[in-house]
Amino acid sequence: MTTTLEHATTMAQPKGGGLARHQNFATAIVAGVVLAWVGWFLGRHLFWNGSDNWSDQVTILTLLGWMLGFWIGIGAFNAPFQWLLGRDNTRADNLYYAGDKQGRMRYWKFTTDHKVVGVQYIIVTMGLLAVGGILAMAIRTELITPGTHFVNQQVYNSFIAIHGMVMILALIVAVAGPWGNFVMPIMIGARDMAFPRLNALSLWTLVSAATVLVGTLAVGGLPVGWVVLGTIANQAGPGMDFFAVAIVIFTVSTTVASVNLITTVITMRTRGMTLDRLPIFVWGTIITAALALYAFPFFFVAEANQIFDRTASTSFYVAAGGGTSWLQANLFWLMGHPEVYVILIPAVAALFEISSTMARKPVFSYRTAVGAMVVLAGLSAVVWAHHMFTAGWAPSLSGPFMVTTELISIPTGIFFLVLVGTLWRGNVWMKLPTVWMFGFIFNFIVGGVTGIYLSDVPLDEQLHGTMFVTAHFHYIFVGSVLFGAIAALAYWFPKVSGRYLNEFLGRLSFWLVFSGVQLTFGAMFLSGLKGMPRRDASYSFAFEHTNFISTIGAYMIMSGMLVLLGAVITSWRSGEPSGPNPWRANTLEWQVPTPPPLENFDVLPVITEDPYHFDETTVNA
Amino acid sequence: METSAKKSLRSFYWTWVILTAVGVGLSLWLPRRYMPAAMSNDAHLTMTTMILFSICAAPVASGVYAGALHVLRHHRYRGDGVPPPAPQIRESTKLLTSWITASAILTVFVLVWGLGALAAENGSSSSNPLVVNVTGQQWVWTFSYPGTHVVSDELYLPENREVEFRVTSLDVTHGFWLVNMGVQVDANPDVITTIHTTPDKLGVFEVRCEQFCGLNHAFMDAVGYVVTPQKFSSWLSAQPARA
Amino acid sequence: MDRSKSLGVALVSVLLGGGALALGGFVLASNTPHQKALQCIESSTHSHTCSVTLSTFPDSLEGVHGANGGPHPDWVTYSNDNVVVPANTTVNMTIDQYDTGGNVNNPFFDSVVGTNGGTAAVNGKVVTHVALGDTGHTFTLRGIPGNGKTLFVSVPLPYNFGTKFPVRLGTGTYPKPVVVKFSFTTGGPAVYEFNCEFPCGGSREGNGFGEAMQAFGYMSGTITVK
Ligand SMILES: [Cu+2]
Ligand SMILES: [Cu+2]
Ligand SMILES: [Cu+2]
Q1: Which residue, A442, A603, C25, C196, has fewest beta-carbon neighbours within 10 Å?
Q2: ipTM computed for the complex
């Protein structure tokens, strides 16, 4: 322990190569644990109140120690320190930190190569989906019959918020993380991101936030529901501190990542890559990044206030102290609605890309599609209070928020037009990405239409807070975004691994997940219509049958996702080799070798037209 | 070639029509089959809106489904290897404008209906509503009737008289939901929120909490009765006076 | 990969993953035990009648949550969180109240509600409510929503003013209990939930609904009608 502690501290003063080059995930954990212990020790001495080892102040200091230690341990501060000491990285240093000639080890380090970061995001996404999925299975198992037979309501309640937040995190990064990092820079003809070190920083910050969030389960979970309403959150134990710190760290990660993506697209495009020749996925990525940059700081403030309420006796959300829980609700949903489009837009943009390649046709109405994404992002900033129609806050604003919300159906409708319009009269190549894309179209209609009901105030006064809402957004998140993310995975998998994702296993997984979604969330609509509230550990016998069906469907989804996991692992190791451009696409990522070399291009390409023209040469290329 | 394209297009329209018919059928059947029995003016409005919106959505959803099915049937590449290039269509101003116009018209219709329904729900029709004070606490609802000494865990309401619920909480935020009346509002500590509704059908109804409120949230319900005005006043006078 | 090998991969994935999940679920379920079921003992003289006794304690030292009070020795608690009663039966319930008390935040809970006869017997004296400020805990029982007429029973458990502590249970010493007796009649099979409505748990806002009130098995439990 002592030696590793020295290790962790000497890293702060890097001497060029040496120890700094040996930092990895393991040293990050060690340094994180050491500083977390220091934080706990300090907290106990500063705030000890006699009995409670985990008072809020102690918990917060411990977790901040963890984050700081993790950053130091992974090597996030090496380069700035070196620069402060008057030594800048040499070219050799930069190549080393980009992971040059380090084999698999580079995936466990603070590696700056955008392709390594992309793969790291794939792994993080899969890890988060696994944790969230396990919790989902626990939840559905409890709900298979009325009563509390599997776990009691305390355990159940402690799961729901963590399931929700972990899945939200997973989906925020599911498309923009892997592909915004792996393929996007190549798509625009860049050698790397604008700020490669910030890229690694955002990834590893996400990892440290995710560990804190999942760590909540070890301290009694978060029995408050994922919207963490101010009043109920005040009653919660240390899990609430874990959650708040996780969100604060997570916001740092998304902010850094968004700035990086936007700067990259603005400044690093190759010659001739004008805005109207940008692959549409690149548009999707920067619109998402801009929206994230706007939305997540609200979450940061919401949870920072929460931390102050709990540790410094402020009363932002305490009615008795002059605060209001509505402040929390507003801040939360100011983030919460845009966040849905931060999740959705990259998946849709990836599907635009896929539909064009697979139908051998240009993206239908390219400019309108980009415009629809921009309008959607803009609208999402002014609709948040539709989550508060029944909160009692500002009833007079119900009308205006209903108007803005329902306008969303116009840009969303354009998405369908673009997708189906691109496929229409195409020569549609029914490969794995295409299959999942059709699943997306089916489910997104269901999720979209049910959203219109919820945006209508009189209907929302019946459906709000019920399983109908849960079913609605699961059709969006699971049925649509996850399908889009899997389509994107199947599409770009050959570029990452040089191999196809196994077609048979992929289709088997599709049918399991697709029918599972219909059963689970289709039946959940009925539970909600009948009047079953959300977040209930037990329910009336009236909802018995629909809940049973939902649970069976959930097991099918789980089986499908496990098959997909098996497909990813086996295909990565021994799948059918694909060559550099298996789909005969025109975007730049397919024009470089597979796997793409460090810095992507020997000579930067010059662009003369957009990538959506398909002719005989593209077939035989 | 031309005729087969026309034929396939005709099958697209037919699919669209049939799917729309199925959608309309579902719209008429599902809400009535699955939604709780409507027992107030607001609940009737909710049911109507649900059915109406579903009917509006039917042709849109069916159009997309018919399009996707059409692609699957007629534009799937069935050969080996890479499919040849398809017609390089980039735009269709006609299609784009008609699509946007159609979705805008539907949106405006849904909006106008929704705003009208909202106004109908908000407009207080009665100058003499029955006031009921609702208190949420972890994990019980209690109801008191101002002007009387009655406090109850059961909610009695007279038929055909507008009720004004003044809702508050003693601890955390709860969600006061009259399941069969189609109205709900949060119960917030130190704040009074109000909702109105007019029960118009005799019978038993459900009151549930729809805002997560801690350990026993799942059990936070109450039972309610809509009774005749005579029965209501005899119930009131039969209740013990409480502290 | 040929098809049979692919099927093998699918099977192994589902079996391995599903097996791991099932194992985790089993561990989880066995780690969140209900306390040992407390059966309502059926009367040999009256048909459809049974009796059961619960207690409320100011701390956990009497040992329900383990020796020396378990993880939270200072939390208030009921003596059992898992009561089993027969269907369509009159339950004669006795609750021994060992704790002090104060003001409930909703005066409704000073009253006896939903018992047979609308009354309870406190140390043998029949009452319909407890004086303001004299409530220690409440026994408040409610049903699962949607089963038609729901069972709702709420009985105040009065303040124990005892100043001598002759009763030794586990490592705790307690005054002589206030004995509250009442009865209610069960319907068909269902799971009901009971908890205390007196704000007796710790909490950061001082509304008394944190800690013991939010932890299953302390100030709450289930009554299963079988
Ligand atoms: Cu929203
Ligand atoms: Cu609740
Ligand atoms: Cu109590």
Answers
A1: A603
A2: 0.94
**Nearest neighbour of B171 by CB, restricted to C148, C149, C209:** C209
Taking Cα atoms as reference points, which of B214, B53, B155, B218 lies closest to residue A462?
A: B53
Mean local confidence (pLDDT), A232-248: 90
Output the six-digit token pair for A588: 């730049």
pLDDT surpassing 80 at residue B126: no
Task: Give a yes or no: residue A261 inside a domain.
Answer: yes
Q: Which ligand is closest in space to the CA of residue A382? A: 1
Tokens of A608: 């003369």
Write out pLDDT tens, residues C81-118.
888 998 888 999 999 999 888 888 888 888 898 899 88
Question: What is the distance between the alpha carbons of residues A162 and A167, in angstroms, rounded to a whole number?
Answer: 8
Angle at which helix A280-311 crosses helix A56-74, to 10 degrees, equals: 140
Position A191 pLDDT exceeds 60? yes
The shortest C-alpha distance from C62 to chain A (Å) reads 20
Domain that holds residue A445: 128-619
Same domain, A160 and A257: yes
Looking at residue A171, what is its pLDDT? 95
Same domain membership, residue A488 and residue A347? yes
pLDDT digits (tens, 9 = 90+) for A66-113: 999 999 999 999 888 888 988 888 888 888 888 888 888 889 999 999
Mean pLDDT, chain C, whole residue set: 85
pLDDT average, residue stretch A22-41: 93
Q: In this structure, is residue A120 part of a structural domain?
A: no
- Interchain proximity B84–A427, CB inside 8 Å: yes
Q: Answer yes or no: do A55 and A141 share one domain.
A: no
Most C-contacting residue of A145, A309, A562, A578 (CB-CB within 10 A), to test interface: A562
A414 neighbourhood in chain B, CB within 8 Å: 99-100
> With a CB-CB cutoff of 8 Å, which residues 54-93 of chain B face chain A?
57, 60-61, 64-65, 67-68, 70-72, 75-77, 82-92
In a 10 Å sphere around its CB, with 0-12 CB exposed, 13-18 middle and 19+ buried, how is residue A8 labelled? buried
Q: Can you give the pLDDT at residue C149?
A: 55
Could A504 and C29 be called an inter-chain contact, meaning their C-beta atoms sit closer than 8 Å?
A: no
- At the top level of CATH, the class of B130-238 is mainly beta
Q: Tell me which of B241 and C181 has the higher pLDDT.
A: C181
CA of A524 to the centre of ligand 2 (A): 19
Single out the residue in A45, A61, A76 at which a domain terminates.
A76
Whether A397 and chain B come into contact, CB under 8 Å, resolves to: no
**Are A268 and A150 members of one domain?**
yes
> CB contact, 8 Å: A138 with chain C?
yes
Please give the tally of structural domains in chain A.
2
Neighbours of A616 (CB within 10 A): 9
**What Rg do the C-alpha atoms of chain B give, in angstroms?**
26
The rounded Å distance from CA B176 to ligand 2 centre is 9
Cβ <8 Å between A320 and C205: yes
Chains sharing 3 or more CB pairs under 8 A with chain C: A, B
How many CB atoms are closer than 10 A to CB A311?
A: 19
In chain B, domain spans: 4-73+92-122, 130-238
Q: How far is the CA of A379 from the centre of ligand 1 (A)?
A: 11
pLDDT category, C146, cuts 50, 70, 90? Answer: low
Q: What distance in Å separates residue C123's CA from the closest CA in chain A?
A: 34
In a domain, A100, yes or no: no
**Structural domains in chain C, sorted by start:** 3-225 (2.60.40.420)
Q: How far is A364 from chain B (nearest CA, A)?
A: 5
Which is nearest to A332 in space by CA: A230, A250, A210, A447? A230
CATH number of domain containing A179 = 1.20.210.10
pLDDT in tens, B186-211: 999 889 999 999 999 999 998 999 99
Q: State how far the Cα of A149 lies from the Cα of A337, in Å rounded to an integer.
A: 35
Specify whether A293 is located in the same domain as A389. Answer: yes
User: Does one domain contain both A60 and A186?
Assistant: no
A118 within a domain of the structure (yes/no): no
Whether residue A133 is found in the same domain as residue A257: yes
The reported pTM is 0.93
